[in-house]
């Protein structure tokens, strides 16, 4: 039974490719419905974010480059971690309404409902990957390009799996616990400040407290992006953390979703 559920979960986007493609296409283009800027916002949004943070941290706070990153500006240091985080936070924040918004469809049409967490995760990651790509293109022109960048799709993929597992859990539980929407919104804010995105981990002097950050998978993801892009190195410790944690999240989230999905129609 366990392996049957996991096999069905694993093969979902492939066995139902046409449905997955149609859902993903619909949700992706829905972001630009009635939008004057259209696809231009995919490129303008990260550029505007970079300009705003550049002004705030470089001009107002005059934040210095973090120790160990050479002449890298603080804004570049922050954005390399912020843009992948944004993909994660966007997917998680929308997960609690993922099934509730599709309630009329779930209750009236018989289809593999497990495809919805896949769609709900891939759209934010596709959208924000474009912004991250714009930043990487800029950094490549500034001399940061390295063969280690080949690791980036690998890291991004495991972050996607980690997020997909959490989206599956939260979307499924939100059908039964509607208060999760407020709790998740608060949790994302707390998680953001517990992840060294707008501050370097070197600011924390206590080694015991610093080691506690290893319990936060997003800390390892953010660290890997910065190490690969800005330092041309890669940490085995962070790799050893993200791979099992991502696989555990993906398979446990998938198993839980598949286990309780039959009750969605009755509750919704």
Describe the structure.
With 268 residues, this protein is mostly helical. The chain has one domain (2-267). Helices cover 71% and strands 0% of the residues. It has twelve helices and no strands. The chain has helices spanning 2-15, 17-30, 40-60, 74-95, 103-108, 115-141, 152-174, 180-193, 207-212, 217-231, 236-260, 264-267. Helix 2 (17-30) packs across helix 6 and helix 4 packs antiparallel against helix 8. The longest helix is centred in the middle third of the chain and has 27 residues, at 115-141. The chain starts with a helix and ends with a helix. The model has no long low-confidence stretch (mean pLDDT 87).
Keywords:
268 residues; globular; mainly alpha
Gyration radius, rounded: 20 Å
**Percentage of residues in DSSP E strands:** under 5%
- For the record, the count of structural domains works out to 1
- Number of distinct beta strands: 0
Q: Major β-sheet, in short?
A: none
- Spans with pLDDT under 50 lasting ≥5 residues? none
**What is the average of the pLDDT values?**
87
Seen as an oligomer or otherwise, the chain set is single chain
| Helix/strand order | HHHHHHHHHHHH
Q: State the helical fraction.
A: over 70%
Principal-axes shape call: globular
Q: Give the distance, in angstroms, between the N- and C-terminal Cα atoms.
A: 26 Å
Structural class: mainly alpha
Q: Number of DSSP helices?
A: 12
């Amino acid at each position: 039974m366990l392996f049957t559920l996991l096999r069905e979960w694993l093969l979902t986007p492939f066995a139902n490719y046409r449905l997955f493609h149609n859902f993903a296409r619909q949700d992706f283009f829905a972001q630009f419905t009635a939008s004057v800027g259209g696809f231009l916002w995919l490129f303008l949004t990260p550029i505007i974010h970079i300009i705003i943070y550049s002004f705030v941290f470089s001009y107002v706070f005059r934040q210095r480059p973090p120790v160990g990153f050479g002449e890298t500006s603080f804004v570049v240091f922050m954005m390399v971690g912020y843009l992948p985080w944004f993909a994660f936070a966007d997917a998680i924040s929308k997960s609690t309404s993922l099934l509730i918004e599709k309630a009329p469809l779930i209750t009236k049409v018989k289809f593999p409902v497990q495809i919805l967490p896949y769609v709900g995760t891939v759209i934010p990651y596709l959208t924000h990957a474009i912004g991250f790509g714009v930043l990487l293109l800029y950094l490549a022109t500034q001399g940061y390009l390295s063969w280690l960048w080949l690791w980036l799709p690998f890291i991004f993929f495991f972050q996607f799996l980690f997020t997909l597992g959490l989206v599956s859990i939260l979307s499924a539980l939100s059908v039964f616990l509607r208060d999760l929407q407020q709790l998740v919104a608060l949790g994302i804010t707390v998680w953001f400040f517990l992840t060294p995105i707008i501050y370097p981990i070197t600011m924390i002097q206590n080694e015991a407290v610093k080691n506690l950050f290893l319990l936060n998978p997003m800390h390892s993801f953010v660290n890997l992006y910065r190490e690969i892009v800005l330092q041309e190195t890669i940490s085995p410790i962070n790799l050893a953390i993200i791979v099992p944690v991502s696989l555990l999240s993906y398979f446990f989230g998938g198993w839980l979703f598949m286990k309780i999905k039959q009750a969605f129609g009755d509750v919704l």
